[in-house]
Amino acid sequence: MQTISQKQKSIHIVTPNSFLAWIGKFLLILIALFALFVLAKNLIAKPTLFAQNVLDGLKLGFVYALIALGYTMVYGIVKLINFAHGDVFMVGAFVSFFAVEFLGLHVWPIAVFPDINPLLANVLGTITIILLSMVICVLLAITIERVAYKPLRDAPRIAALITAIGVSFFLEYFGLLEFVFSARFIPYKRPFEEMTWYIKDGIHQVEAGVTTPPGSITFSNIFVVIVIATVLAQLFLQYLVRRTKIGIAMRATSFDKPTARLMGINVDQVISFTFGIGAAFAALGGVLFAIAYPSIKTLMGVYPGLKAFVAAVLGGIGSIPGAFVGALIMGQAEILTSAYVSTPMRDAIAFSILIIVLLIRPTGIFGEPEKEKA
Amino acid sequence: MDITTLLISFVKIVAVVAYFYGLFWVMGIKGKKIQLGKKEFDISILVNIFGVFIGFLLIQLALTPFGSFSILTNFDRGLLFQACSMVMVALGLNLIYGFNGQFSLGQYGFYGIGAYTAADITYRWVNGDSRGLIVVGIGTILGAVVIMLIRKFLTNLRRMPVLSSFTLYLIGSVLAGVVAVFAGKLIAPAINPFLGSALQPGLLNQQVPMYFVFFLAVIFAGIFAAEVSFLFGLPVLSLGSDYFGIATLGFTIVVYTLMVNSDTILPFPEMKGGRGMIGIPKLTTWFWAFLFMMLVIITMRNIIRSSTGRSIMSVREDEIAARSMGIDVAETKLMSFVIGSLFAGIGGGVYAHYIGFLSPGAFDFLVGFNPLIIIVFGGLGSMTGTITASFGWIFFLEGTLREILGKISTEAPSWRYVLYPLTLLLLMLVRPQGLLGSVEWGYLKSKVIPLRKSKNTDEVKSA
Question: ipTM score of the complex?
């Protein structure tokens, strides 16, 4: 966090009285005003549709938030863009797919306790699936860290980055092999049934085969699950980082590695732990993503991973609330862009937002300004 | 497994690499003197030129079929041209990252811009529309003029904020583009009878000028990519190393998205968006690939050996020290970024005309890591390493591994992308500084030995 842009401050000097200095700002303000105008126009014209889009954007943003946590923590500690993180996310989704499709693990509560409450059975089953994905992804991530990244801790940073790209390519192309995951889209079987409600004069459940009345906002239990899981994950992580011993060790390692080592912190263990936590959240994100958009494939992790990374950068990389806020912005940007501007250009616009935000605040929204270190 | 296939493909890789080492050795010969009467003449320059000519002829002979046999097959010819364009792209990136220390992931974006620009010009030309060449030519030249003129004006106004100067350049370039389109529409009917097109040859247009059009198209494509990189790099280069990398990654994705939507969002129906552009004339021969590659290599080597090159390298080593020595750091960064993109654009032009087909998938950000991997493989800050790694990488991955795995079963060639990251991991574990480190050979050897710290400067600071 501290090292990124200590350089090149001299060309950021702004002379406020210069007329030309206003031209650049004027252009940016114009773009922002135009975007606001488009949004406001649509909000006034069809408020419920707008609210529906915002809700969809939240759903996507919450999943991005789960992936972004792993990026932001790993970058905060080892200054490594962990390109393999998006593929860990993919592995999480596939583990849950195998657990549901072939092992049928999500029905164990009914099999063991036949007269259990169906809601409780669903919750227990889903949690089992998620836990299984998490365990496998954590093992995978720690293996990757131990095998690929740890030997390079003292090498130039580019070597670690190339290794990360290599690990990512390995997971992708190994998964693309016919007998592993193959290159096809695979329909995903959810561990619980989808239930949708609509809001119009109170909350009603949507019956099968009945169309919802116009001007209503629909949401499903999947949305509720995603929101609850993400908020719990955020709170847990805040607690972990702020209150526990390992959290203090993580922050110390992130701040100054050699000193942390002198203080008796096992830096290698802390780094492995960070990779593990990140992978656990990525697995959770992968399962939820697959449940929300039930069609999975081997390269599904590439673009969500990249966007989650962008979200982490937007929020200020290294900052946990920043990753959350950045992910919400990315989700909204993607859905609102495809709804109101242009569907095929949504990636381009998301990344243009990234570039513009970086130009205005080079360390992201929540990122601390650079401090000079002796 | 067939042992002869293995042997032949191994010999091919060694031969290609040895060829370049020989070429650079001949080009680097100095102090050859000849006694004529009483005077001594320095003929080393003649030896060098002769060496390049022989180097060209060697591959040309190997490519020429004798009856049904040729040393380099049609398949190898494809690999050769691919490797030539990869050399240009990777050398450009090496100038940006290896020599100047700016971590860029946007090289494939500029590569794609160059490829599509050059392809569009020649495609329009063979379909009887010479306006593509005229408009792009006027546009790039006007853009360059605008940049030069405003630059002089802006350097007088010191302390100009980056975003404002960016806006000025942007407005200037857009105006240049508009002027170019109008001028092209005006001029085209007047000069079309002279230029003609491939369908209706004009006065100036006989068999040879098609290659002239190709040459111009590639050069204009390079300049266009360089101008785009100037506009993009001006504000973005002020970000620090990692954030600059992320922003350039964003640029690659923006360019990719624009390519996918080139027929709907951009007004270029002939590019056919995500389906890929077909019908590009296949004009790349060994002569052109060799010519452009040699141009890029010689230009880059001369830049590196000049005082400009030393200031570029000094920015990599320590920006603060460089600034205190009177080097304009921002200017130097921008210059290396623009020149690197120029090389990428030229490489794109050569690539586009060898296969006759362009699809946006070839410029996705996942393949965009390739030049980065190549320069790290060969050694950051080593031109010899980059050239060796480009040829070795293409011939090994696309040639040898595919052939060997193809012998095992039809399924097996997809395994090569599983083996390749494993090789990458192994190399990084064994030799993190790349195959050659910063060693140079023959002609590419610099008078001043470039020093490079064993560790990344960022790492040292944070430790």
Answer: 0.86
